[in-house]
C-alpha cells in the first residue's frame, strides 16, 4: 500500500479505512484508534457536524480524513461513496441500532427499522467494500457484532436476530472471499456506555442484570472494543478470518 498519505509508524500506516456509524460511540472510538495506528480514515454517518469535528481530530494525528454524510441504508448511494474512495484497505462495518422491546410487543415497523440497518445495510456496505478490496487483492472487513450474536439477551429478540445473522454472514463472506486476499471477522462487545446504551444502563434493574453477567465486574470501554478492531484490521491478524472476537468481560463464558 505504498505511496499513500499517512504516518510512517503504526500497524496501519498509509492505509485507508472506512468506518460507518462514525459520528459517535464505538464508531468514533474505532476511527480514532485506526488513525492512531497511521490509517487515513473515511467517516460515514448522517451527522455532518459531528463528523467534521471528528475529522479535525483525526487530521491532528497527522493522517487524512474524509467526511461522507450518508445514511448507510441508502444502499446505492453508500456503494457509490465507497467506489469513489481513493483506496480502501479496511472496513469497520459499525453502523447499527437497537430498540429494546419484549418479544410479545415487537411491531413490524420496529423490526424492519432495526433489521434494515443492522443486517441489510451492513450486508451491502460490506459487499461494496469487498468489491474494492478484491480488485486490490487485499483488505480486512470487521463487522461490528455483539455478544447478542452469540446468546439471547433480555428485551432484544430483534437485535439478537440481526447480530446472529451478522455472525453467520461474516463466516460465509470469509468462505466466499478466501483466496482473494480479503479477510472478514467480527468483534462482539458486551455492554459499553455509549449514546445508544446510556439510558438503559441508568435503570437499576437492567444495570444489575448487566453487572451480574459480566464476570470482570464492569462495562467495557470504547477503547477496548476499538483495540480489538485495530488488531483484526491489521496484518497482526493476517491468519485470522471467519471468526468472532468477543470483548465481553466473560459474559459468554457462563
UniProtKB/TrEMBL annotation:
Tell me if Iron-sulfur is a UniProt keyword of this record: no
**Keywords associated with the record:** NADP
Single GO biological process annotation from the record: glucose metabolic process
A Pfam match:
adh_short_C2
Supply the InterPro entries for this chain: L-xylulose/Carbonyl_redctase (IPR051737), NAD(P)-bd_dom_sf (IPR036291), Sc_DH/Rdtase_CS (IPR020904), SDR_fam (IPR002347)
Which terms in the Gene Ontology molecular function aspect does this entry carry? Answer: carbonyl reductase (NADPH) activity; L-xylulose reductase (NADPH) activity
What's the subunit arrangement here?
A: Homotetramer.
The Swiss-Prot or TrEMBL record describes its family as follows: Belongs to the short-chain dehydrogenases/reductases (SDR) family.
Name the UniProt record assigns to this protein: SDR family oxidoreductase
Amino acid at each position: 500500500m505504498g505511496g499513500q498519505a499517512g504516518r510512517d509508524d503504526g500497524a496501519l500506516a498509509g492505509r485507508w479505512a472506512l468506518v460507518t456509524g462514525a459520528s459517535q460511540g464505538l464508531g468514533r472510538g474505532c476511527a480514532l484508534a485506526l488513525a492512531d495506528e497511521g490509517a487515513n480514515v473515511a467517516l460515514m454517518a448522517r451527522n455532518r457536524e459531528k463528523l467534521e469535528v471528528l475529522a479535525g481530530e483525526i487530521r491532528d494525528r497527522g493522517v487524512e480524513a474524509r467526511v461522507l454524510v450518508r445514511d448507510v441504508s441508502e444502499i446505492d448511494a453508500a456503494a457509490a461513496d465507497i467506489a469513489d474512495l481513493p483506496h480502501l484497505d479496511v472496513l469497520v462495518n459499525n453502523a447499527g441500532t437497537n430498540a429494546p422491546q419484549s418479544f410479545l410487543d415487537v411491531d413490524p415497523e420496529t423490526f424492519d427499522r432495526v433489521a434494515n440497518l443492522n443486517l441489510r445495510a451492513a450486508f451491502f456496505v460490506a459487499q461494496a467494500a469487498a468489491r474494492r478490496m478484491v480488485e486490490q487483492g487485499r483488505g480486512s472487513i470487521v463487522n461490528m457484532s455483539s455478544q447478542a450474536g452469540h446468546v439471547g439477551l433480555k428485551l432484544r429478540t430483534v437485535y439478537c436476530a440481526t447480530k446472529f445473522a451478522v455472525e453467520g454472514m461474516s463466516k460465509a463472506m470469509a468462505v466466499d472471499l478466501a483466496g482473494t486476499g480479503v479477510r472478514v471477522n467480527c468483534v462482539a462487545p458486551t455492554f459499553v456506555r455509549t449514546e445508544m446504551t446510556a439510558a438503559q444502563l441508568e435503570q437499576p434493574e437492567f444495570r444489575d442484570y448487566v453487572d451480574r453477567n459480566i464476570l470482570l465486574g464492569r462495562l467495557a470501554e470504547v477503547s477496548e472494543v476499538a483495540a480489538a478492531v485495530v488488531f483484526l484490521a491489521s496484518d497482526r491478524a493476517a491468519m485470522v478470518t471467519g471468526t468472532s472476537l468477543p470483548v465481553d468481560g466473560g459474559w459468554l463464558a457462563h
